[in-house]
Each structure stands twice: as structure tokens, then as C-alpha cells.
Amino acid sequence: MLELIRKSILAGIGAVILTKEKIGELTRTLVEEGKISTAEAEKLADELVKSGEHEWEEINTKIHDSIKKWADSIDMVRRKEFQEMKARIDVLEQRLTALEGTEKEGTESEEKD
Question: What is the pTM of this model?
């Protein structure tokens, strides 16, 4: 699942880069055709790039939120929670072993009497 997410994000980044290149090509073409000035082309390119970056941030946030909701919705234990539970179990096992040892010693001394 993480690999799929990683590939999706990388594809999105590739699309952003490709779009930036296409914007540059488009504005150069418009300047060459005399439809807009160089200054207008730069302004248009900047506006389109900023708009694209803003949209990318929104998409990235939505993807992150969706993944978090998905992860929260499934019955999986987070690594930290797992480690905490493992530590508690280890302590309980040690206490149980100690209790069993004490119990065994008590039984052996009663048998000798």
C-alpha cells in the first residue's frame, strides 16, 4: 500500500514538473506569435505555476488526510502502541515467572516439613 502511495505522489510531482515545462513552452509560443509581451508571458507563467503549486498542496493534503483516515479506520496497531504493549507483556511475564518461582519454593519447603 505504501508503495502505491509513493508511486502516486511521485507521479504527481512528475506531472507538476511537466506542467511547468508546458507552461514555459506555451508562453514562449504566445510571445513568438506576438499575442502577448515577454513581461505578460512571465506574469502568466508565474500565476499558472503558483496556481498549480497551490492545487498540488491541496491535493497532497487531501491524500494525506485520506490515508490517515484509512489507517485509523482499519484495526491495525501502530508501532508505538505495539512496543508499549510488548513492554507491558514482558514485565507481566517476568512477574509471573517470579511468582511461579516463589510458589515452587513454598511447595518444596512444605513437602520437606
Answer: 0.44
